[in-house]
From TrEMBL:
InterPro entries: ABC_transporter_permease, MetI-like, MetI-like_sf. Keywords: Cell membrane, Membrane, Transmembrane, Transmembrane helix, Transport. This is ABC transporter, permease protein. It comes from Actinomyces graevenitzii F0530. It is found in: Cell membrane. The lineage of its organism: Bacteria, Bacillati, Actinomycetota, Actinomycetes, Actinomycetales. It is a multi-pass membrane protein. PROSITE patterns: ABC_TM1.
Length: 307
């Protein structure tokens, strides 16, 4: 027996365009905050990159592309860019170390998982400037702990790490890797938990060992988390400043060969009082971040696997 349908029955649909001004009032505080603290500074900085003012903050004078011309003619721009790229590549490559640590922490049956997570995450929570001062003492060329250990191992003349250009950058890179592992491990641990355990059981039945399971299951299904860390780490690496400023220091003779792009911005804006030139450097950094991020999003289609 068929049931009779109600005559002229209509499905209720949401009415569009009847919200009025109320939705905009609810999002207005957020939109105004984003506009004031994000978009306006970007637009203002872009405008300042085409102007020049005196050291006492007088009215800005329009100079067109003169700031960019002077910037690309600076001899220290190339070294600052190379140092920034080297640091960024090293820190991004260290994600491999974080993957191995996270995989070891998430091994089935491992005791003290929360303790290990806390230990690795603590460097990320510490104040960068305070920790940088500790690293500055550790790598001191005269009485630093690291050099004392080298002397104990038989090295008679260990290098002055923070005053030698190549070694100073290596110390900053080592600090960047050490301080980022904690955050990386937390993100990767969450990604490992999202992988179905049944896949490992099926692989074990087929005779796959732990190494094969790691390369054929863990790594491919962990690529979304690795991609996220690659984006965040790249952006942070291109903005290298605080650890470099605290560990190496402005009075260090090695700073001229270790400086980054953001330090070049700081030097131009606050030491040389060249606001227009500093704004041009900021625009270059913004363009670099945008292009690298766009490249990563395009390339992720070839290696990131979403379940």
């Amino acid at each position: 027996m068929k049931t009779a349908k109600a005559p002229n029955a209509k499905v209720a649909r949401p009415v569009k365009g009847k919200g009025g001004i109320w939705p905009w009032l609810f999002v207005a505080p957020l939109l105004s905050g984003v506009a004031i603290f994000y978009y306006y500074p970007i637009i203002k900085n872009f405008y300042l990159s085409f102007t020049r003012s005196d050291a006492f903050g007088g009215s800005a004078k329009w100079v067109g592309l003169e700031n960019y011309t002077d910037l690309f003619n600076r001899p220290d721009l190339a070294s600052a860019t190379i140092n920034t790229i080297i640091y960024t590549l090293a820190v991004v490559a260290s994600i491999i170390i974080s993957v191995l640590i996270a995989a070891l922490i998430e091994l089935p049956g491992l005791r003290g998982v929360r303790f290990y997570r806390t230990v690795f995450f603590m460097p990320y929570l510490a104040m960068p400037i305070a920790v940088s001062q500790v690293w500055k003492i550790i790598f001191n060329g005269n009485f630093g702990l690291f050099n004392q250990m080298l002397k104990g191992l038989g090295v008679s003349n260990p290098p002055y790490w923070l005053s030698t250009p190549g070694f100073a950058l290596a110390v900053v890179i080592f600090y960047g890797i050490w301080s980022s592992i904690g955050f990386n491990v937390i993100i990767l641990s969450a990604g490992l938990k999202s992988i179905p355990h049944e896949l490992y059981e099926a692989a074990a039945i087929d005779g796959a060992g732990r190494v094969k399971q790691f390369t054929a299951i863990t790594i491919p299904l962990l690529t979304p988390s690795i991609f996220l860390l690659a984006i965040v780490t790249t952006i942070g690496g291109l903005q290298l400043f605080d650890s470099l400023f605290a560990i190496v220091g402005t009075a260090n003779p090695a700073m001229k060969d270790t400086r980054s792009l953001v330090y070049l911005f700081y030097n131009t804006a606050f030491e040389n009082n060249d606001k227009g030139g500093a704004a041009a450097i900021a625009v270059i950094i913004l363009v670099m971040v945008a292009l690298v991020t766009l490249f990563q999003f395009v390339m992720q289609k070839k290696w990131v696997r979403y379940v």
